Amino acid sequence: MVNLKRMLPDELTGVLAAQGEPAYRARQLFAWIHGRGARGFDEMTSLPRSLRERLAEIADLGLLTPVSRQEDPRDGTVKFLLRLNDDAGNTVETVRMTYSYGYSACVSSQVGCHIGCRFCASSIGGLIRNLTAAEMIEQLILLNRDLAVRDPQARIARVVIMGMGEPMENLTEVLRFLRLAHEPEGCGIGWRHMTVSTSGLVPGIEALAAEDLPITLAVSLHAPNDEVRNRLMPINRRYPLGQLMPACRRYAEATGRRLTFEYVLIGGVNDLPEHARELARLLRGMLCHVNLIPLNPVAGRGLEPSPPQAMAAFQRILREGGVAATLRRQLGTAIDAACGQLRRRLLEAPVP
């Protein structure tokens, strides 16, 4: 069976040409799959019945199955656990967040993760496999379809690949996903409203820069020096700050895009005033912004969030040092907010 969900309009044209259909049918089909989130060929009423029947015989729509849906009543954050259509029945998480500018989707790129960041639940259990572009775009389509139940006119305007996994280890499929999400007949998300995150894989940063796409790069930094970062993020032993920071500067110069540095504030570990001053020196002169994030504690990790006064002081020191910094409001704290927590709870549930 041909998976139509991973195909761009030009590729769909070839599939339909083999069925004797005109080229314009490809745009119609793409719009049904991506723009309207059709769950079956029978929903595609603008296509001839004969074509829908033939497509049902040779193709599938790469559907994922919702296992659970959680919504935080305080801020509207929605989190899905989705079962993949594979023999192992793997699951991934995806999240929709509400901001003043509209809705944003957080998409996973892998089943699990092997990067091993101490503060993250995604790496518990290691990496299972990469997701396909079809499995990534399906997350976005499902979030849009769910949103339409509440407001038929609303659409997700931004997407961040910051869910489970390390996107740079799956860059080919990530780039296809971004191109699918950008298509105007589909989700229609602008390049400048897309963000790809990384734990600091320097070759991936350089490869993404070479694509010459005006998307935002978000780097999970979380420490101002190698000593602290080695303890929090084992990947730093492969790509220490002496390699990572020049790659980040080159990305900003090549794309003209301001980088985002993600910095989870962990009590007594990386949140002291001297850490903030060291971080300001590290980033001075770079086209960047620091996103300070209160820690969502993960059971068994032994890490605690910074006190509010420590977070405020950290932000103030960065700003005084000439580095733009914001403190992210906590979203979804009532619904297993941290990446991987919902999947972990399912994996650890007793077998009935």
Number of domains: 2
Mind summarizing the main beta sheet?
10 strands, mixed
Q: What's the Cα radius of gyration?
A: 21 Å
Spatial arrangement of strands, main beta sheet: 3-4-5-6-9-10-11-12-13-14
CATH H-level superfamily of the largest domain: Aldolase class I
* Uncertain ranges: 348-352
**Mean pLDDT rating:** 93
Q: Which architecture of the largest domain would the CATH scheme give at its second level?
A: Alpha-Beta Barrel
Could you say what the CATH topology of the largest domain is called?
A: TIM Barrel
- What are the secondary-structure elements, in order, as H or E? EHHHEEEEEEEHEHEHEHHEHEHEH
State the CATH class of the largest domain: Alpha Beta
| Backbone shape | elongated
Distance from first to last alpha carbon: 34 Å
Number of strands: 14
- Fraction in helix: 25-40%
Beta content comes to 15-25%
Which structural class best describes the helix and strand composition?
alpha/beta
Q: Tally the helices: what do you get?
A: 11
